[in-house]
Amino acid sequence: MIFNIEKGSIRKQFPFSQVKSCAYSEGRRFRISFYGRPDYELEAASMEDKNKITHLLSKVIERNACRELGELCSGQPETCDVIHEGLLDVKLEMPSSIQWVKHFVQLRERELRLRCIDQPQTEKASPVAKTISLSSGDAVVSKEDGSGAFSLQTKEAKYLFQIPFTVQNNKLEDISKLQNEWIVLLDRYCSLPEEGSVRKEDVLGAANEVLRDLNEEKVEEYPHLPLRSLAVSAAPPQSCSFVSGSVPLPVIMPDIKIPPPSFKSLNQTPRSTRTKAFYWNVVPQEKIQKSLWTSNNSGKKLLDVARLDDQFLIQDGMGFPVNEPLRTQHIMLNQKVAHNFNIFLKSFCIKPSQLKEKVYIIHEDSGGLSDEQITALRRYQPTAKDKEMYLSFKGPPSELHLVDQFMLEMCKIPNLCQILDILHSARELPVSMADLEPLINQKIQACKQLQDCPRFVAVLEYILAIGNYLNEKAGKEKARGFQLSSLAKLPLFRGKERNFTLLHALVEQIFLHEPDLATFPQELTEFKAVSGASIKGLSAEVEVLRKELESIAECRKQIKSKVAKVGTLESRFYKDLKDLIQKYEKDFSQLSRNCEDMKKAYRVILMKFGEADDQDSEELFGWISTFISEFGRVLAEIIS
User: Which domain holds residue 328?
Assistant: First the structure.
């Protein structure tokens, strides 16, 4: 089971059987696809955590695939039917270069499995195994023009493959034949119907016919690749990811002088009159007639539209010339990424030349980037191939499109990825600590109230007495105590009258003999609106924050040691960051102590009420909260 825990509460649960596929994005990001649910795009706390998570997910996906084929995995996914297999070079992206890494690849009926066999180079960088789902029907395989490679485009990412040179295939004819086999078979199995009953023999037969036609054609010689594209970084790679999106080759522009674009004066630019759209959940038309919305008077409500416009009007673009649209001006960046990045830049009120200064300011109120801007820049930060392309550009930046100007500036900032990660974590950490602190304190107070609640204990004794009386007359043994989960059964145990339950009997007995005990909820005020957060979940989140704080401090040391010459901007950044880390460590120390107090107090409660050591607090507190609510309801019924 996969749990999504937020602020100590389990928001969602996903059975392993619903996991469809997992795709790796750049850095610490990855995406999980589920059957019948939206995809989850997540970011791990570290590359090590990402590799552990994705490795476990690969095992889950392998097991699910074997079950779909009606075979048992038993830890040996190889028993599943393999259609085609062999060695392929897969294009991987490292921090400082692009590398072709050898993989053992297996094509199965609904998936493609990759297993890295160049382990010495990549064991610290990427998961050993990966499974690409082909069952969604949106995967497309194609030959890359002029590069001697072929690609597999899925909803999550684009994967580039090429046939490696080996002793067995040392001729272009052999490589072309092997490549055609992979392309044809992948194409056939990418286009299989989702639930169709297609025989493997039929698919392979059709594929063989196409292969015969292809192999009879003249083999096209592949152009020699430039040495630069085959360069391998001398430094050992620290992280890598499967290349996502299309991979553009460097474009050599003809030496033609392009006239500068004519820009309108800033004073002539009309002010935007569009506001942000509020995406609410609209009541269906068939539900309107019988609802309160039939006679709604929203049209008669007076609105301060000036105030609304002031807050929600879409901001105009920067106070500097806006480049020509994407379709008319050449852009070096990948077109899909450039399109999305260009949309973001329209509301990014910073000049390219100001970016470096903004990045080295930690706090937004001191002139730094906003949280949204940091998040966006992390999404669009340049890849290793982008850096190679932009840093080789020799012309004036003003000739470039605004998208390329920003990408060029980002490529020039040393350790940009780590700095943006630090800024992101430094903004989130205090917010997360502030969110957890009241939840932890609430659990501590709840435990203290349970530790000193004589009237509640007396009520439990009444329940024990009533239960033992009934069980003794039913021929069962007496009990010395009962678990608090039994409280939920009281309103379900009915008498001869359907509306009279054991809870009614309890209230009557208390009201008859010790009416002051009916006020026991006053001892347990923390349970009237108990939060869904569990002590185990809160403890896990505190541990995540501890790792995040350690990661910030470690990252600061690493990037500072890499910089040969520290300028004024960098020096101020490192000093401010050091002060901030010290403040966070002090705040976290108090939060950590509170967390330990919470766990200690809860262990005392478990011992007092005879509960199991692993009893979840969310369940236990929930039983008590529900009992208090139901007790009050029945008491009101009897009094009235």
Answer: 274-288+304-413
